[in-house]
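Because discrete structure vocabularies remain unfamiliar, we turn briefly to a single example record, giving the amino acid sequence and backbone structure tokens:
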Amino acid sequence: MNIKMSNETVYHPGEIDWAAPGKRQYDVAFHLDSSWGYSLLPVTVINGLKNPGTGKMPPGVAVFGGNHGNEWEGQIAVKRLCSDLDALQLSGRIILIPQLSPSACAANTRLSPLDNVNMNRAFPGNPRGSISYRIAHFVTSHVFPLARIVVDLHSGGVEGGFALCTSIHSVPDPNQYEEMVGAAKLFDTPFVFVYSSDMASGLLSDEAESNGKITIGGEFGFGETVSRIGVRHATEGIKNVLRFYGHLAEPVIKIDNKRAAAPQLVSATDLNAYQPAPQDGIWEPAVDLGDTVAAGTAIGYIHDFSNQAAPPLEIRANTEGILIMMHAPAACARGVTLYVIASPV
């Protein structure tokens, strides 16, 4: 097995040997825009040494953490697999990138401090753009062509809390959609969340889906903390993907043995499900993530401390369903998403 104990620095994607047998770990150097130097993108490439025994090689898999730098569960899960996965026990090609926006991860911020760009709004990228766009272009032009399965691991950061879930979009191709649902359930989270593709543009998942990839996202924690439960679901979920598609010769496992129910498919594809805060204030939740709420249920209260005599503004559910997302910080600004209610599918 070919394992490098320290990463090999490469200065051009053409220097990466994507087909070399065994495990290789690289730092891909991207020029800084404002000084002499580089931002180093960690990339682990594993080409399994085990014969799959089926006469057919498993599909390529690419897994990303650190699309946003202050979301840690995915970064830890992918980094752990960079060291733990053994090429002798694997078939097929696996590409692992634990910190897709290295500068944002180093700064513990959502945006890259090098160009003030949200990596998850930079796709498909631009080879002549700022550093985030160049990294995104590297992914779309060099990584995506080698993968059929794409996994992009997220958390809520400090913006919002999510009930533990994997996430997908509702894509036009029914076969692609059904396979994405099945792959998302391999992470054994309480929910598989079908979310709106109209909330933002330039997402890694949008680009992968448009290229026909089986694309799974997920929200495995929030608050710039590290959820041990989220890390376990992210880590074992990726391994379940490898088990299911034949990279690992072992059965898919049940990750949460305390929950008998299978993951519940819920959907919020209409923008009306994403409710903005009507005013600035301090947000006090009245229900918990994952709760089933009826229309009219009090979701929480916005307190205006500029008027001590004024009662708080009560925020009520505009529909029934599962509270899949809720604003996490106490301080909320007019226009931020306060909550998302998803409907069971």
